[in-house]
Amino acid sequence: MTAVLPSRPAERPTGGKLIDQFEYGLDAPICLTWELTYACNLACVHCLSSSGRRDPRELSTAEAEAVIDELQRMQVFYVNVGGGEPTVRPDFWHLLDYAIGHDVGVKFSTNGIKLDRARAQQLARTDYVDVQISLDGATAEVNDAVRGTGSFATATRALENLAEAGMKDFKVSVVVTRENAGQLDEFKALTDRYGAQLRITRFRPSGRGADVWDRLHPTQAQQRDLYQWLLANGDQVLTGDSFFHLSALGEALPGLNLCGAGRVVCLIDPVGDVYACPFAIHEQFLAGNVRSPGGFQQVWQHSELFADLRNPQTGGACTKCAHFDSCRGGCMAAKFFTGLPLDGPDPECVQGYGESALAARDLELVTPRSHLDHSHKGPVRGQPTLLGMPSIPAKICDESPLAGLKLS
Amino acid sequence: MRGVLIDGSPASAAGQPAAGAVTIPADEVPFDPSVPWRKSPSVALRPEPFGALVYHFGNRKLSFLKSKPLVAVVTALESHPDVPSTLVACEVPEAQHPAYVTALATLARSQMIQRRPEESA
C-alpha cells in the first residue's frame, strides 16, 4: 500500500480540542457506512458507488451477521446502511432485525422501491431504525432527470406510506447539485408536508458522479447561497457534516469540520472490502477486507492505510492558507477523483483555489477511476436522460465505436 | 449542533474539565453534587485513547468524555455517596473540583448520568 498523504508526526497530544483528537483516529468508528449490495433497480447518473448489478462475491447472510457481531463487540452503535438499493437483498429485513437485536442501530438509505404500506408499518413499530428516502429534486422533473423516470413517484409514495404508518423522524435525503441547489426551500416544504426531516449532503465526483461532476456540481455562487441557507436553517436540517469545506466562507458550520475518512468513519462495501470513506471506492483507499483473519477490527485498528490517514496534515499548499483551520483542506475524495493533490485545495474550495488548481492540471492528466463498476450493462426501465443525453444506446457501437470488437 | 457524522445525534463534548461557564436554563433544577449519582443504565462507555465515547441507547445521543480521569469519575460515581467524595476517591486535585462538577452537570443535563435512587439503609 502506498502512502497517500505526506508523512506527519504521529504523536497523539493529550487534552486539547476533540476535533484534534479525532484526527488521530478512534479505536472504533463513530459510525460507518455499510453498503449491503451493488444491486439497484435504478441507474442514477451520479451514483457514488457505480451500482446496478449485484456482485456475485457479496457477503452471505451468515457473513453479514458475523460483521454485526463484531460491530457489537467493538461498540459501534450505529451503521448507515446503503447500496445499491439495500432493500432488494432478500435478507435485508432479517439483517435489520439482527443488527437492532445486537445493539447496532441502523439508518438505511433507500429509493423507496420496497416501502409499501406493510413495510412502512413494520418500520414504524421498530425502535432504533431510521429511514432516509433519496430524492434529488423537489419536483419530478428535476429529480427524474438524475434518478430516472418514475423515481420521484416511487420516493413520494414511500414517504406517504411512512407518514401514514406514523413513522417518526424519517428523512428525505438530498444530494445538492447545480440542478436542485435552487430548490432548498421547496425541499424543506416537501419534507415538512410529510412530517419528515430534511437531510442534504454534498455531491462528490465518486463512482458515476465523476462522469457528470463538471455539469452537476454546484457553482461558486450556489455554494455561497447554500452556505447562507445553512447558517439560517442549519439547526433544522441534517448535513452529515458534509459541507465543512464551506466553513472557509466565514463562520464554521455546525458539526464536525473535518475529513473523517479512516479516522472516525469508513465504508464496508458489499463484498466486505473496507475503504476509508463511502466516497473513496478506489484501490488507493482500500484498507482490507472483513473476510480476512482478524476481521473488521484488524483492518480498522491496524491497516497501514488508516494509520497513515490518522495524522493531522502539516504540509501542502492548504496549510499556509488563512482558512485552513476552518475547512482543513476539504474532501479527500473530491480532490482525488478530480486529479488534484491530496494536500492541496478541494476542487470546490470556496476561496477559489480549487478552480485555479483544476485549471492548472496537466492536459494529459487522466483522472483516477475506480477499479469497480457495477453499472447496469443493459437498458434500465426509466433510465435517466440527463440534459437530453441519449440514455440507452440504440446500437452497441453508439456507446463506443470499438465496443465488442475483437482486436486480436 | 447537528451530529458528529451521525445525523440526529447531537454530539456534545462534555468537558475537558475546565470547560467554560455553562448556561443553565432558568426552569431547570440545578445540578446537585451532594446527592448520590450514577452513570445512566442506558448509557454505554466506549474507551478511546483520549477518554471515552458515550452513547445513550434511550435518546440515541452521542457524547464524548475528553479525559481519562473524567471517565474514571463517571464510572466511580455509583460507588460513592456524592460527587465530592467521588472526586476525592479518584484523586482529582481539589483545584479542579469545580471544573469536574461543571462537566458532570453537562452530563446530567443530557441524561448520561442520573440521580441514584435512594438506597435503603
Describe, in plain words, how this protein is organized in 3D.
The complex is a heterodimer of chains A (408) and B (121). Chain A is α/β, with parallel strands linked by helices. In chain A, 30% of the residues lie in helices and 11% in strands. Chain A is built from 14 helices and ten strands. Chain B has three helices and six strands, in the order E-E-E-E-E-H-H-H-E. Chain B has two domains: 30 residues, no CATH class; 84 residues, Outer Surface Protein A, domain 3. In chain B, the strands form two sheets. In chain B, strands 1-5-4-3 form a four-stranded mixed sheet, covered by helices on one side. In chain B, strands 2-6 form a two-stranded antiparallel sheet. The interface between A and B is medium-sized, with 37 and 26 residues.
List keywords for this structure.
heterodimer; A: 408 residues; alpha/beta; 10-stranded mixed beta sheet; 14 helices; globular; B: 121 residues; alpha+beta; Outer Surface Protein A, domain 3; 2 domains; two-stranded antiparallel sheet; 3 helices; disordered N terminus
